[in-house]
Amino acid sequence: MRCSLVLKICVKNFVMMDLVYPFFAECFAAILALFAVAFACFENHEGKKTKIFSITFCFAIAGALLVAMFVQAGHVNGLANAFFEKTMLTTKIQLVILVVYFMFLAFTIFNKIYSFSYIALSLLSLCGSLLLICSSNLLSVYLALELQSIPLYIILTQNKTLSSKNAIEGAVKYFIMSSLFSCFFIYACSLFYANFATLSLGQVASGAEYGKSAVLSVIFILFAFCGKLSLAPFYFWAPDLYQKTTKSSLFFISSISKLASVCALFTIFRAVFNILTPQDFSIIVKVLTIIIALSFAVGSFGGLAQQNIKRLLAYSGIINAAFFVCPLFLMSVNALRYSLFYIVIYALNTFVVLACLSYLKQVRGYKFKQITDLALVYKYHPFIAFYLLCSVLSIVGLPPFAGFFTKFFILKSIFAVNLPIFVIALLGSVVASFYYLSILKAMYFAKTENTIFTTSKPAKINFAAIFIISICFVITILNFAISLNPSLALQIIL
């Protein structure tokens, strides 16, 4: 009797673990977030012990999530149900997101943000991003989006370097716009269910009958994700938010959240492509074409008038987000890989730019906000200037940097599918290069001496600064190494 009871318990636990293994990383992120919340109740923000414990906890998070990801990778086996679909591709994407999150943790420590509440909220947002990547149901997509977004509202207000009023203003704008995008998505879900009697993308058969509102539901889903990606005309929150938040929070929003959102958008569009007729899908393609064209125009010409570096990065994010969604015209797995490869390289280069600015601030004790603040930086910090040079040129898309090949893959893929977007993307990149190059002009060719460097002595470099600059060095090497065989790099990363 007892043996049979023990056997039943063992079998039950085995089945439960078999269900948990494919979501090991997500479960670990949620558990670690709960631990961080518990530690936050007893933390002393000014205590040295808190700083040491916070740093140790961040390294523990990195190790635990990495182990959990590899355990999960061995138990995927093509899991698919009504809410989630796990494949090796989604697992690879989640692993990439974890690597980017480790960079975010290192950047957070470097910026002297030791708050456990900040770490807990970032873990919850990470958990939402990981779930969003493998969601195959509109309900799970919505819940994952909210789990990703809600912690960010609080994270964005935690800015000690700016006045609390400015930080809260940027977060409130993001909250209001995100609420609007959530309304778009909920309304789209209701229309989708009214037409297909399900929210599961995999359960809708090809050729199923539907009404005219089905096309409208997909358009509203597109609007919701365009808002999350700061595409025109839903970009209004981005410049103010970028300017008024911390560099580590900015990096999280511009990399992890956008990477997950693009994956979810591709999943939805591939399902819709098989459901809708070619005539109806062509309507959605026209809407997408208008959005991308507007984004290239706003991102390229809007950035020309910017002197604030963070606002310039916001407009850079708009034009790069347009590149993210260009492969949607192809509706293939390779198109998704091209888009994700582009986002990864863009995120790495953005990290270098933000890390170099933070390094200069820590060493010189001055907030480098304007482009003119970087005047003749190469004289005093030649390696920092070189890292910035390589990353900016990679974002521009010039050879022999990795950014050139990411743009080349995308432009080559859309050339035969949508020639007008190809031309607009090419022209937008040329116009945008002018405001990118203004940074390099200030760093190397400014005519007046920079008083920031002449009137201040550099501070001592600590271990955190060395670690961050080492990451910048590795990314700079990758920018050159990927150019040797970009196709191989694409296969390795994704």
Order of helices and strands: HHHHHHHHHHHHHHHHHHHH
Radius of gyration: 23 Å
Strand-residue fraction?
under 5%
Count of beta strands: 0
Most strands sheet:
none
Notes on the structure:
The protein has 494 residues and is mainly α. It has a domain at 16-155. It is built from 20 helices and no strands. Helix 2 (24-40) runs antiparallel to helix 5, helix 3 packs antiparallel against helix 4 (88-110) and helix 7 (164-196) runs antiparallel to helix 8 (213-228). The longest helix has 33 residues, at 164-196. It is globular, with a radius of gyration of 23 Å. Residues 1-18 have low confidence and may be disordered.
Descriptors:
mainly alpha, 494 residues
Gist of the model:
The chain is mainly α. The protein has 20 helices and no strands. The longest helix has 33 residues, at 164-196.
